[in-house]
Amino acid sequence: MIVFDLIFGFLMVFAGRNLFWLCVGVVGFLLGVQSAAALGFSSGGMALLAAFALGILGALLSISFEWFAVVFGIGFLGGGYLLISMLSLMNILPLAAPQGMNAWPFFVIGGIVGMCLMVIIFDWTLIMISSLLGATLIANAFNGTEGLRELLFISSMVTGILVQYLTLKDTAAHEDHSVRRI
């Protein structure tokens, strides 16, 4: 799983805005991994298969219904996943929430904020969410000290934002602004 986290993490950090369909698939995969236990798959091949199926479904839906898939798949699902991940990193919300503590309200709040931002400022939200998700995957792939993981997270996130901003700026210079494309 570490290899997939690193590969998808680097792809999302450096090309998340350009490969938005990959972002939707990765978010589907991440949510599939985390929700496999809730679906009755505690570990092993069936959990990985369920996660992979959700990832493929997310990628296929994003190709078929681009705008909806990007706004919902990256905005809502990515925003929800990010808020849950950030709260667990800050030890506010354990990643495996204990009985009596429900993580869904936090997921929905993060999702609504992410979806609204996707509609209002599409390119920048896509850059921010893909950079944050990619940096989270990269940092979680390493078993180093907490300080080293935080440094890796911050440097990956900042690098991703800068690289994607430069490609956005370069694309905007060569693109006709009369037609907005995803």
List the helices and strands and how they pair.
Layout: H1 2-15, H2 20-35, H3 45-64, H4 66-89, H5 104-120, H6 122-140, H7 146-174
Helix and strand composition category = mainly alpha
- What sort of overall outline do the alpha carbons produce when their principal axes are compared? globular
Radius of gyration, whole Å: 16 Å
The number of helices is: 7
Main sheet? none
Encode the helix/strand succession as letters: HHHHHHH
Mean pLDDT, rounded to whole units?
77
- The tally of beta strands, per DSSP, is 0
Residue fraction in strands:
under 5%
Helix content: over 70%
Q: For the terminal residues, how far apart are their CA atoms?
A: 30 Å
Uncertain parts:
none
Features:
7 helices, mainly alpha, single chain, 182 residues
Task: Write up what this structure looks like.
The protein is mainly α and 182 residues long. Helices cover 76% and strands 0% of the residues. It has helices spanning 2-15, 20-35, 45-64, 66-89, 104-120, 122-140, 146-174. The mean pLDDT is 77.
Q: What's a quick, concise take on this entry?
A:
The chain has seven helices and no strands.
